[in-house]
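[audit] Reproducing an earlier prediction to check determinism. Same input, same settings, fresh worker. If the tokens differ from the archived copy the diff job will pick it up downstream; this log only records the rerun itself.
[audit] input (307 residues):
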Amino acid sequence: MSNYFKVLRPGINSTFQDLGRFGLQHFGIVASGCMDQLSFYISNKLVGNKVSEGALEFAYQGPLLEHKGEPALVAVSGKVNFNIISKNGETKQGSPNTSFVVSNGDKIDILSTINSVYGYFSVFGGFKLKEVKGSVSTLVKAKIGPNNGDKLKSEDKIFFNKSSSLDKTKKIKFNFDEDNIIRVMKGLQVNYFSKKSQEVFFSKEYRVTRLSDRMGMRLQGEKLENIINTNIKSEGITKGSIQIPGDGQPIILLSDHPTIGGYPKIANVISADYDKLVQKVPGTLIKFKLVDLSVAESAFEEYVRKF
């Protein structure tokens, strides 16, 4: 008997992701991977998968899925509002960060994220996904990954491996980091900006705009003055780099960022604060805090301990 979920509504930007596809940036292929690594880890931990197993990532509104086949142990992680609709039509509110069992004909309706952007859906045993260069992460702009490198569409079938562990439901209590302070280190071209603009960047608030996706997050705030050149010779860039184009408004590069870029970089988000950053919804005011390498390393050690 085939086990799968039928997609009745695809949701917004629903794609398969894992930890990423590494070692190919020099070919122009970014690592991609899940946006919020901690929520991704939690989704797999809840159903007993290895933490790197591919999961379904969604933004703002998730999919409506109908389960077909043998009972399955599943979980929805993040700050998410969702319903479980039984085969007989009875609806009950789901509990995020808690695993549960679905049977043939049950539906999972992931309605929305709550004051956040990304959530994850996992199934025990994992989805049946074809790896591309050692990863099942989907990079939509390059059409790389499972599902023909595309987002979910209505009527798609998501096949998964047979479940054999249905009695190990669990709940993970976790306090999601909700403050709006994002720690950064100085960027390679920080001195392209006037001393006043540097002070502004590291002390004033910036608003997250609606022009944000898996590729980058545009911010709005006091204009930053470039005193050398608004362009540089294109060079390799990393996740979390904060570029300042000619309009003086910051762009934070996220998981699907280009592999090279020609705008000066004033700062870089530290790895420990990346998950917190990507969950900020449009309209949120964030503030950057400048830290040095020792603080960034200590923060990363603390971040890893959460896992």
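[audit] rerun output stored. Observation attached for the diff report: The chain has a mean pLDDT of 95.
[audit] end
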